[in-house]
Amino acid sequence: MRIGFFDSGIGGMTVLHQALKYLPNDDYIYYADTLHVPYGEKTKKEVREYIFNAVDFMAEQGIKALVIACNTATSIAVDDLRKKYNFPILGIEPAVKPAVQLCEGKRKKVLVLATNLTLREEKFQNLVKSIDHHDIVESLPLPGLVQFAEDFEFRDEKVVPYLKEKLSSFDLKQYGTIVLGCTHFPYFENSFKRIFPEEVDIISGGIGTAKNLKRILEARNQINDGAGDILFFKSGYKVKDKETLSIYKKLLVMLDGISSLTVGS
Question: Rounded to whole angstroms, how far apart are CA atoms 9 and 82?
């Protein structure tokens, strides 16, 4: 059986990339709900419906575990998904806890970058309240980055002006860590590095999710000795055209060159 990965688009590929390092011989299904991307700008009700439809489809394919490789989808639906399905379901959330730990004693702030819906969700708000005892966590929605990624637009000359405009009211020297709280955002590490001071840490939670996935499958004796095969689906339809498959494979190769500080248990 395969491991399922779900996201609204290509953002979850950044988490799949980590999983391939820890479970290189397992086989995967990657489901991108491209008909409805971006999730972060839609209503909670709409997004919940999209998520459950997608996971129903993936369950029918026969998966042994599911990674919700989308911060927005995790915050909205992961608890209810776990009630419905018997296989392990892992989510991903902004790496606020390790970010705060990194900034303790530095007299620096944490800036969480995510989608509007993730930042509005009670799950995120409760996470910050439970950890941010010194009021050092701030947040900023960057929905434009999701669209850039979905358009395969990664050029600094396009991305950097957008980031500069969105961050124009922030004193970047005040921050010790920025949290990439959307799985689409690690694609733009180089653009962030051009804007933030060199000493600022850039972190995301993909590696922690991958490690946890491996631990769970090992405990269930479900590690495969396969070929690392990946089936790609877009909103319920198997991706067969060679051009799209080539792009997806190039994205995974591109991520090999991204070295942001990925953290997690």
Answer: 22
Measured distance CA(161)–CA(202) in Å, rounded: 19
pTM over 0.85: yes
Active site residues: 70, 182
Is 40 annotated as ligand-binding?
Answer: yes
Pick from 118, 116, 124: nearest CA to 41: 116
Q: Is 260 annotated as a binding residue?
A: no
Mind listing the pLDDT tens digit for each residue in 47-89? 999 999 999 999 999 999 999 999 889 989 999 999 999 999 9
**Closest Cα partner for 15 from 90, 76, 110?**
90
**Domain map (residue ranges) of the chain:** 2-92+206-260, 96-204
Is 2-92+206-260 in CATH node 3.40.50.1860?
A: yes
Which CATH architecture group holds 96-204? Answer: 3-Layer(aba) Sandwich (3.40)
State yes or no: 72 annotated in a binding site: yes
Q: Residue 205's pLDDT band (boundaries 50, 70, 90)?
A: confident
Helix axes 206-219, 13-22, angle to 10 degrees: 50
Q: In the 8-state DSSP scheme, what is residue 142? A: -
